[in-house]
Design goal:
6-stranded antiparallel β-sheet, elongated, single chain, Trna Endonuclease, Chain: A, domain 1, alpha+beta, 10-stranded mixed β-sheet, 5 helices, 2 domains
Length: 308
């Protein structure tokens, strides 16, 4: 578990959100400011919603400090104060290293719910999760060349400055500007957008087999939905881009990254068990969680992707 606690917060947020009825809002890492604009608090997870004719607000705070030992009673005291100050109806504390006896006793007195998140070995999930790895199929389209065709009728000065920009570009500079959204993209970004719409291009390729070379002429006929390049001598619209690329399909085995159990400290009952995989797909770090919800008896899959 990452010492920053962000993985813990995300996991707890997912589980609690799956257990909530519809209509409740769950937010993470919410910053609270006073009237002068100074940050006075940060809430790990806040739950809000309508219960009957009343609005309720709950707070979940997470602690991932294995090197510090069990969560102390002083932490629970802080949460009691936070509940009072920010008018929460309910507060829950989640720890990856358990709770000291003083923390458990004080939490019961003050009505603070306690949850633990502990690591499990594969034998504890053998009754519902048999795979030991996930096989990832990755469709790769490596751009090897791109030819940009500008609108007709541009003068020599603009053409020369456009040529200089393109020659100095390695495909990763954001030289393209969308005429529709104003978003800045690289040629590689534009190629990915085209490739994502042409998955049939991979038909016939064998996983881990030979690649194939393709050339695609992408037409951008609509001047309100194309790209332009801003040059020192004025903007130039791009009417076509010819992409040349190598397509391949690769497979890889992704092992289980962790197995955890989310448990009620008071009654010692498991709320959920989670099997996690953490593949890297393109430029994204992806987390795939299989949550076995004990009370409901079903398994839910969640996927989250973040840029590297």
């Amino acid at each position: 578990m990452n010492n920053t606690g962000k993985q813990l917060e995300q996991l707890v947020k997912e589980i609690e959100q799956l257990l909530l009825p519809k209509g409740f809002n769950v937010s993470a890492n919410k910053n609270i400011f006073n009237d002068e604009g100074v940050q006075v608090a940060e809430f790990d997870i806040e739950i809000s919603g309508q219960l009957g004719s009343s609005s309720i607000k709950s707070l979940i705070e997470c602690r991932d400090r294995p090197s510090k030992g069990s969560a102390p009673g002083s932490w629970i005291e802080q949460l009691v104060g936070r509940r009072s100050r920010f008018k929460f109806n309910k507060v829950m504390a989640v720890s990856t290293s358990g709770f000291a006896d003083s923390a458990i006793t004080y939490a019961k007195t003050e009505g603070i719910d306690l949850r633990s998140l502990e690591n499990l070995s594969p034998k504890f999930i053998a009754d519902w999760f048999l795979p030991t790895h996930m096989e990832l199929f990755s469709q790769n389209g490596e751009l090897t060349h791109a030819r940009l065709i500008p609108e007709k009728g541009i003068n020599d000065d603009i053409f020369n400055s456009l040529s200089e920009i393109i020659v100095n570009d390695l495909g990763k500079k954001t030289i393209l500007v969308s005429t529709e959204t104003g978003e800045k993209l690289s040629i590689v970004d534009a190629w990915r957008g085209v490739l994502n719409k042409m998955t049939s291009s991979f038909d016939g390729l064998e996983p881990n087999g030979e690649s194939k070379k393709i050339a695609i002429n992408a037409n951008y006929n609509d001047e309100n939905s194309r790209y332009k390049i801003i040059t020192p001598n004025g903007p130039v619209h791009i009417t076509n881009i010819i992409y040349v690329a190598e397509l391949s399909i690769k497979t890889s085995k992704i092992p289980i990254s962790r197995i955890t159990q989310y448990k009620d400290v008071d009654n010692k009952k498991a709320i959920s068990q989670t099997v996690s995989f953490e593949p890297t797909i393109g430029d994204k770090n992806v987390t795939i969680n299989f949550h076995k919800l004990k009370e409901k008896g079903n398994t839910v899959v969640t996927i989250q992707a973040q840029s590297k």
